[in-house]
Each structure stands twice: as C-alpha cells, then as structure tokens.
Design a protein that fits this description.
The protein is of the alpha/beta class. The chain has 11 helices and 13 strands.
Length: 273
C-alpha cells in the first residue's frame, strides 16, 4: 500500500519583509505565523513528506509569485516543493521550476484558461502540475443537471461551487465536474480546499473529499480544517484522500509532523517515518 503523505502548507503574503506566512479562517482574518524559509526548514527537519508554498494574494493583486522567497526556501528543504499563486502562463511555470520548485499549483488561471493545464502537463510532465480547487458549499441546489448533489453530514443536499481569486469570486462551476475535466486535461494531482472548513479546526470536508477520491484516478490532497491528528486520520479513512495538507496545527506549535505520523502509524495508516 502506498504511504499517505503529510504536507504542511505555507500561505504567504507579500509584506515589507518580503514575505510572511499567514493563516486565516475561511480565507479571511489572517494572522501572521512566521518567516516562510524558517518554517520550511522546521518542517523539513520534522519529516514532512512535501511542502506547499502558496502566494495567496498574487492573483488578486495581479502580480507574479515571489521568486526570491521560493529560491531561498528551495535552498533549505530537501523534500518536494509545490508552489502556487499568481501563475498564469507557461513562462510563469518555467520560472517557478527554475527557482527550485518540483511542482506548480495552478488555480484561478486554470479556471480561466483550462488549456493551460494541458499545455503545461504536455511540456513539463503531469507530475509537475497540481491543480488547486477551492470550493464552497452551496445549498441552493436548484435543478441544474450539471451540478453534482452531495449529502452533507446533517443530511442537507448541497453542491460544491468552485471559487477563485483566493475565495473572493464564485464561478458557478461545479467542483466535481471541474475536477473530472482537470484530470482529463492532464493534471497530475488535485489540491482540494474546502473554504467552509479552512482554518476552522473542524476537520476536513468529508463529502467532497470522498467524492473526488472515489471518482478520480489522480491523487487528491485534502486541505482545510485540520485541528488534530484524528482529523487527518478521518481524511484518509472516510475521505479516502491520498495526502493531507495542514497549516495552523503545525505553524502554531500544537502538533509536530512527527506527532501526527506516530498517531497515524498507531492507527494502522502507512506513513513514512
């Protein structure tokens, strides 16, 4: 059985220091968590399987990703590094990979220009291309045949709507249908974030995580809502995710990567210790 991956996430915003890791709730109310390079070094030493670096305001602010911070981070870590935020062209992807990233994550640009997924996977290989899908629950189900209706924990029917520009703009696109298209276009992985769970410590959004994990062949990275190691266990067992991404519990010292992996190992989940 393949080992399950534990992936810390660095949500970074541009500031006077050049870049600061932040964490919010449902993509807002951001609080500072530290220097991205120092945090990356810490997680590398703790045994993280990969690292995700997301420049979360680049698309909204209409600027490119922080190349210098990526270069400094890549110099300090010896695990796969995925970088996203403000990536909208083949040249952007080429620059990010040259700066030391192993993979790139595209989100807003993928929704606006789906062909970018195919072009980039053809050029750089699908293993380099991660499509990030940010989605939000919508209980106004209507009768649109293109919507995939799922049952929430309390039995309420809902569909999941793709949102872009850091959660600022709803698209009307069904997340399940979009994920299937993303796979067809050649993306190697999907980074799935439930905006409703982001930063809440309530656990992963199991209905959408499970649906995508069952429907798609490519790996699903679950993101949004981790408050403790049990939530990660549930993401793997109930959500059937291939990898779990978390931020707050690691940034603010509540748990280490080792704590989480030891918990998972005791529960019978295969992890790399």
């Amino acid at each position: 059985m393949l080992t399950k991956r534990i992936i810390p996430c660095l949500d970074v915003t541009l500031d006077e220091a050049g870049g600061t890791v932040v964490k919010g709730i449902e993509f807002v109310d951001l609080r500072k968590a530290g220097d991205p390079v120092e945090l990356a070094k810490r997680y590398n030493e703790q045994g993280a399987d990969e690292l995700v670096f997301l420049d979360i305001t680049a698309s909204h602010e209409g600027r490119g990703t922080m190349i210098d911070v990526i270069e400094r981070t890549a110099n300090e870590v010896f695990i796969p590094l995925t970088v996203g935020g403000g990536i909208s062209s083949i040249e952007d992807i080429r620059q990010i990979l040259r700066a030391g990233a192993d993979k790139v994550s595209i989100n807003t640009a993928a929704v606006k220009k789906p062909q970018l997924i195919k072009e980039s996977s053809d050029i750089f290989g699908s293993q380099c291309i991660v499509t990030a899908i940010d989605c939000k629950r919508n209980t106004n189900v209507g009768d649109d045949p293109d919507r995939t209706i799922l049952e929430l924990e309390d039995g309420t029917p809902a569909w999941y709507e793709v949102v872009i520009y850091g959660g600022r703009q709803p698209t009307g696109i069904d997340a399940v249908q979009w994920a299937k298209k993303v796979e067809e276009l050649g993306s190697g992985e999907i980074l799935l974030t439930s905006m409703d769970r982001d930063g809440t410590y309530d656990g992963f959004d199991i209905p959408i995580t499970k649906k995508l994990s069952e429907e798609l062949e490519i790996p699903i990275i679950a993101s949004g809502g981790v408050g403790n190691p049990e939530h990660i266990y549930e993401g793997f067992v109930k959500g059937k995710a291939d990898a779990a991404l978390a931020a707050s519990i690691f940034h603010f010292g509540e748990y280490t990567i080792s704590d989480v992996k030891e918990y998972l190992r005791e529960k019978g989940i295969p992890v790399r210790l």
